[in-house]
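Protein in question filed below.

…
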Amino acid sequence: MANVDAKELEKFSELAHRWWDTESEFKPLHQINPLRLNWIDGLCGLAGKTALDVGCGGGILADAMARKGANVLGIDLATKSLRVAELHAMEAGTENVAYREIAVEDLARERPASFDVVTCMEMLEHVPDPASVVAALGQLVKPGGWVFLSTLNRNAKSFLFAIVGAEYVLRMLPAGTHEYARFIRPSELAQMCRDAGLEVQGAKGLTFNPLTQRYALNADTDVNYLLACRRPA
């Protein structure tokens, strides 16, 4: 059986037409995209690299990596989101980006060790078996290549900020966007990466200031965080 939650796919499919509306439910993704893009590019240098964006949705990160000079494949299982991504690439004239509807585990069997850079952002907390996804990421990246992940920490602070605050108080996200039980502690994700044959290179926290309405990358991994890994050469 595919490692997918049908309810999660339906949820994002219903919002697919709003992926590129910067004032929509996806506004936070548009706001954090420059931060995560520059962090990734600063570590691996995207220009001329082959990159894979797993759980690409409407293509916000995939499109940005292509504009940095990478040859990008974005994959997802939400058909409507992929159509939106393809349409945006056509309208924006983005070159070197393609999209495909396929599970990451299936692509790993089909194209092992094929990508210099593999990203999986804001997806792990939406699938039944995140370890299976991470294992596939480790198979897809070339020796010496980079894997970048982001998800939500699991603790009282993340419940307060990511669910109560973001979904119900500030209404930055639709209620029900996240399920607390699926949040992943950094130590747990790091172990998944090691089990997948990846070496953790560093972590960054992603915080939001409600007064300035700005996001920042820093050392605070209590709520949102990103992990950088490499497959040994």
The first helix runs from residue 6 to 14.
